[in-house]
Design brief:
By secondary structure, the protein is of the alpha+beta class. It has 9 helices and 12 strands. Strands 1-2-3-4-5-12-6-11-10-9-8-7 form a 12-stranded mixed sheet, with helices on both faces. α8 links the parallel β10 and β11. α1 crosses α2 and α6 crosses α7.
Length: 308
C-alpha cells in the first residue's frame, strides 16, 4: 500500500460514495443517503481545493483503499473523515492514514488534534489513537422523534430568535459554561471569547448545516442573554442541536428544556421529523436529553491530543 496526498477524486470514488451514503441512511434515513449521493462529488472536489484542507489516499495497487480528510485552523488540526472500503477493513489502512495525518500535524507545530466523527466503516479507533498519546472521550449520538410528548409541550414562547446583537452574549455564556466543563478539551472554540464568537457566527451562517431564521435561539433576562440553543439541519427531515448552554447562575430552572422544546417546535414547522445531538457519556446533560425522549443512535469515541 502507498500513501499519497489526494488532490483529486480517486478513480473508485463511487465506492466511497456508496458506503458513506449507506452510513448516512443508517443514521438519518433514505433521504439522507439520496442527498449525500447527489452532492458528494461536488462537495469533495470543493473541499480538496480549500486552504487548510489536507487529504490523504492510501492506494492498493490501482485503486484507493482508504481516504482521510483533515483541516488545520488556528493551530488546531481536525481529522474530519476516515473511511476504509470494506474489502480493506482487515488491513492496516486506517492506522496508516491516521498515523501519517498525526505525524504531519505534530511536525507542523499544532497545539492540538481532534477527532470527533461518526465513522461509516467498521474500524476500531482506540488501538489506533491510544498509542499516539490521544485521550479517548466516549460519546453518544442521540436522536428523538419530534412527535415525542416531551418535545411537544410548548407553552408561550420564552425564547427569541438570535439577533446579531445577541451573538457576543451567547459567546460569553458558552465560555462561562465550559470553564470547568469535562468537555473543554474536546471543543477548542469554547476556550476564548473571540473563538466562541466566531463559532456562533459560523453556526448562524450555515457552516455546520443549513441554518434558518430562529435556529439559534436565546432566553434573555434584564436584556441580557442567559441561555441559548444553536441548531441546524444536518440531513433531510433531521434537525441538529449543535450547542445548548445555560449560564451557570441560571441553571436548574428548566431553561434548557424550554429551549429544546421551542427549537423542536420550529423544526416541526419546517417539516423535520427528528432531532439529533451529540453528548459525552459522562455529561450530566445526558439525563435531560433522555427525559426529553432522546435515545442513543450510535456510540462514538472522540479522541483529543493537546501539546503539553
Amino acid at each position: 500500500m502507498k500513501l499519497t496526498c489526494m488532490d483529486r477524486l480517486p478513480p473508485n470514488f463511487d465506492a466511497f460514495v456508496s458506503e458513506i451514503g449507506a452510513g448516512f441512511e443508517g443514521l438519518y434515513g433514505p433521504a439522507a443517503r439520496r442527498q449525500y449521493e447527489q452532492v458528494a462529488r461536488v462537495a469533495m472536489t470543493k473541499s480538496l481545493k480549500q486552504p487548510g484542507v489536507n487529504a490523504l489516499a492510501l492506494w492498493a495497487e490501482d485503486e484507493v483503499a482508504g481516504i482521510l480528510l483533515s483541516t488545520l485552523r488556528d493551530y488546531v488540526g481536525k481529522i474530519q473523515l476516515v473511511h476504509v472500503l470494506a474489502p480493506y477493513l482487515a488491513s492496516d489502512a486506517a492506522r496508516l492514514l491516521v498515523e501519517e495525518s498525526v505525524r504531519t500535524f505534530q511536525a507542523g507545530g499544532v497545539e492540538g488534534i481532534l477527532y470527533e466523527t461518526v465513522p461509516f466503516c467498521k474500524i476500531d479507533s482506540r488501538p489506533i489513537f491510544a498509542p499516539l498519546g490521544f485521550t479517548c472521550i466516549p460519546r453518544h449520538l442521540m436522536c428523538a422523534p419530534l412527535a415525542a410528548p416531551e418535545l411537544t409541550d410548548v407553552g408561550p414562547l420564552q425564547s427569541a430568535a438570535c439577533t446579531r446583537q445577541d451573538q457576543p452574549d451567547i459567546a460569553r455564556v458558552i465560555v462561562d459554561c465550559y470553564k470547568d466543563h469535562s468537555d473543554r478539551a474536546l471543543h477548542h472554540e469554547v476556550r476564548t471569547l473571540p473563538k466562541a464568537l466566531e463559532f456562533v457566527e459560523e453556526v448562524v451562517n450555515g457552516t455546520y448545516g443549513r441554518s434558518r431564521p430562529g435556529y439559534v435561539r436565546v432566553i434573555r433576562e434584564a436584556g441580557q442573554c442567559v441561555a441559548a440553543v444553536l441548531g441546524c439541519e444536518v440531513a433531510p427531515e433531521t434537525g441538529f442541536v449543535i450547542q445548548l448552554v445555560v449560564a451557570p447562575s441560571h441553571q436548574g430552572r428548566g431553561l434548557g428544556t424550554t429551549l429544546l422544546r421551542e427549537l423542536a417546535s420550529l423544526y416541526r414547522g419546517v417539516g423535520m421529523a427528528r432531532m439529533a445531538l451529540g453528548v459525552t457519556q459522562s455529561n450530566r446533560a445526558r439525563g435531560l436529553y433522555e427525559r426529553m425522549g432522546f435515545e442513543v443512535l450510535r456510540n462514538v469515541d472522540a479522541f483529543v491530543w493537546w501539546r503539553p
